[in-house]
Amino acid sequence: MSGTTTVRVLVADDHPVVRSGLVGMLTVEPDIEVVGEVADGAAAVAAARDLRPDLVLMDLRMPVLDGAAATARIVAELPGVRVLVLTTYETDADILRAVEAGATGYLLKDTPRETLVAGVRGAARGESALSPSVASRLVQQVRGEGERLTAREVEVLAGVARGLSNAAIGRDLFIAEATVKTHLLRAFAKLDVDDRTRAVTVAMQRGLLPSP
To answer: Domain HTH luxR-type spans what residues (predicted)?
Structure first.
């Protein structure tokens, strides 16, 4: 992040009332600064390039360029900028597109204010933020593919167990940081957990990682 205390946020949503409400909600937080607001995905990419926020709060279904495509561009071009999806949609296709695009988290617009604000802070630090129903859908999705972790997912979790950041894991494994996040989210779903520490603990309990 660009500072030790303040999270700089860009809000992207095509509904003016929703956008205004989000800006108002975040602005009252002493450690959050809204640096811009835009109404479509292409504008979100352009504003992210210009403003370099810590986090883009991204709607999924917007004109010109949708949220998943905008997320993919931002993650690819601006590695220091995180994206937290905030949407009314929770279909499997929507969720997986956002995760595969490199979104750090996926929250629904009916998320309680406290959870949303905590999600913004956490996502800006690179922590995954998932609404419970979204986490459940990811679990169902990967269960359809089988419960076993892939070799790459185990390698990523091993990096987490060594205390490495997503960026450091990516460098070690020669993969993009966004790809690391995707592997982590899939591993979380397979292990039925919602944070890095619990994922490592459960993986060790199941013998997937060596105990310290």
So the answer is: 142-207
CA nearest to 151, candidates 100, 108, 208, 75:
208
User: Into which CATH architecture does domain 147-205 fall?
Assistant: Orthogonal Bundle (1.10)
In this predicted structure, what is the pLDDT of residue 143?
A: 46
pTM, entire model? 0.65
Residue 6: which H helix or E strand, with range?
none
- List pLDDT tens digits, range 169-190: 999 999 999 889 999 988 888 8
Alpha carbon distance 120, 106 (integer Å): 11
Q: Does CATH place domain 7-131 in 3.40.50.2300?
A: yes
Domain boundaries, the chain: 7-131, 147-205
Distance CA 13, CA 185 (A): 24
Side chain identity at residue 100, one-letter code: E
Q: Where are the alpha helices (DSSP H) in 104-131?
A: 113-124
